[in-house]
## 1
Amino acid sequence: MYNKNVIYNIALYNYEVYSITMISKELLKGSIKSIVLKILTQHERMYGYELTQKVEELSNGTIKLTFGALYPILHKLEDDDLVETESEIVNNRNRIYYKLSNKGRKSALEKIEELKVFTSIIQKIIEHKA
């Protein structure tokens, strides 16, 4: 029986088919901040639901951020002056938009680079043959 938390890579007729059933919360937890910062670098402003949908779209549905995971990160980014908020009434509801501050843009670039280096190192470890 296969572990559902593992990413399976199956070679089939010179095409690589990826069957990803789930990415563990532990793997995702340390990357959410960097993912959010990266997405915000590409958009002037976004609201929470919009961010969750963009992450799901970019990950082909393999990463589904819950509001319980997203909003604490957004609030921490706001507390650290990395994002600024704008409030707007949409359909009689208050919608909070998040956008990067100048400090947030700098931090985003650093976090993105840090994540690139980290994933590169992990890839080397995974591919190492003894």
## 2
Amino acid sequence: MKFITSLVTFTFLSLISVTLPVRSKTTNSCIEGAKKTSDPLPQIIALGRAKNVARQAAQVVNSGIEKYRPEDVMHGQVTKAPCTDNGDGTWTFNFQGMVPGGSVPIRNTTVTIDSKTFDVKIDRNTVLK
């Protein structure tokens, strides 16, 4: 019985060590800034739109969704998106992407979105080695 318990523990520890990479801590100063406004809801909604625009811009610049998929944080809750409030009315998203179905990031992309006009600027789109 002790052998089986040890084997199960070893197997479990082995499996959790090979899971997909996860950011240890996602920084989102955008959501914190939105919460500090007198009416945060419109800001948070705009931030969600900006996250989607940034993700879509990265997909376009990387040859479409057939060849590139931004990391999961860019598909989920806006509170988990890697966003920096630049303090000048723009938000910058920095994230990685991979081949659809893959688990190894192939690109690091940084996109800045104007919070009023939703204009897009691709700041960086670097191949990862």
## 3
Amino acid sequence: MLPDSASPDYLAHAGALRQPPDIAHHACLRYTGKVNPTVWQFFDSAGGLITIPIDAALASDDAEVLVDTAVAGLGLLYATDWLVGRQLASGALIRVLPDWRIPDEGAIHIVTASLAGMPNKTGPFPTGWPRGFSPTRPGFSRPRHEAREAAPTIA
């Protein structure tokens, strides 16, 4: 996973980054839902961990707001590639530090007592949702006004 991203417009006026300490000279977009939102952490190619304290140009608990803000050219975004996959694929965002990875990739968990006892109307969700992560559909982030796919039916 390659974490940092920014719009080409932002990088054109703010300058490129070569290593994580360069972040101190950039506008950072902070996700407050992170365990420790005041720092960004990176693994180098040898597995060494570096922690960078950040000052936020904008802080939010809404990841989509931060993605939209990054696309608008207002700062650097520290996010998993599944969140910004569409924006990376379209070129609206580009990876900033491609040789560095982040330690926490995020996760989505579905916890149920048993799929066998689940009502038919809720069964399609835990069995059908992984299609949104298909390699042919990069990223999980969907434009807010895009029509949602119909839920699969259980025979």
## 4
Amino acid sequence: MKTSKKITPILLKSFLILSLLLSLTSCSKNDDNVLEAVTNNLPSSVLRTYTGPLSYTADGEEEIINNPATATISGSNGVYSISFSNDIPSLTGLSFERVGPINFHYEEGDNEIVINTVLVIDFTVNGNLIEFSGI
């Protein structure tokens, strides 16, 4: 169990870094003018349920690891929520920035969410850490 506690955060961070690298390399100069005209509304293709490992630490207590778990993105008009399986609290009031044709990013302080072909979440709310990486 202790090994999985060390491996899960490393895997989640690796997915986050990979997603960011894919986001940055997938946008060429030819796309710049097109992207400026697009709103920050998420396309329906990303408003779905993702499955993958979920790590949750409540108030510094023992980490809860659920694999597989789900995260579902819902919302409209530029404001979105992400709800999780296993009674993990939802993230609400999220607005994403488009950083590529199919790449979206949310960042506030140390909290980060990346959506492209995968959903990667590294988020702390009220002292509770949520880490998720799913397809």
